[in-house]
Amino acid sequence: MKEEIKGLAGCLVAGLGAATTLMAWAPLARVNIEGGFTGIHRDLSVLYVDLPLITAGGALVPLTFWILTMRRFRRPWLAALVAAAATALGIWGLTSSWVPYQAPEFGYERALQGLMVDSPLT
């Protein structure tokens, strides 16, 4: 296999890893983006904090394992298998441990703020 094709395959592995982790991350972050019931708990920090970190991790983990396996064994099929396994383990770790913050849906604080705003005394 030529060096250019190996490099292109490594970039493809990184792109597929990033896309796969984003697809696994998106359903978990949906609640924060939509805001839950009536949209009052919208937290868009998942878009500018978590999204770049998830994308970078999803691209760098399989690419790192691809490069290390290619340097050691020089077998593209083995490198692809190791990169896919590393991506699968990374996604499993992401979905089992990362849970975005979700504020309580019904709380007294929000109800009291609504009463204070709607009060004729203010």
Main attributes of the structure:
elongated, mainly alpha, 0% strand
Overview of this protein structure:
With 122 residues, this protein is mainly α. It is 77% helix and 0% strand. The protein has helices at residues 3-34, 45-73, 76-97, 108-118. The chain is elongated.
Task: Quote the beta fraction.
Answer: under 5%
Order of helices and strands: HHHH
Compute the separation of the termini in Å.
76 Å
Low-confidence stretches: none
Radius of gyration: 21 Å
Largest sheet: none
What is the count of helical runs?
Answer: 4
Query: Which structural class should the secondary elements be placed in?
Result: mainly alpha
Average of per-residue pLDDT values: 83
The global form is elongated
How many strand segments?
0
Q: Give the helix level as a range of percent.
A: over 70%
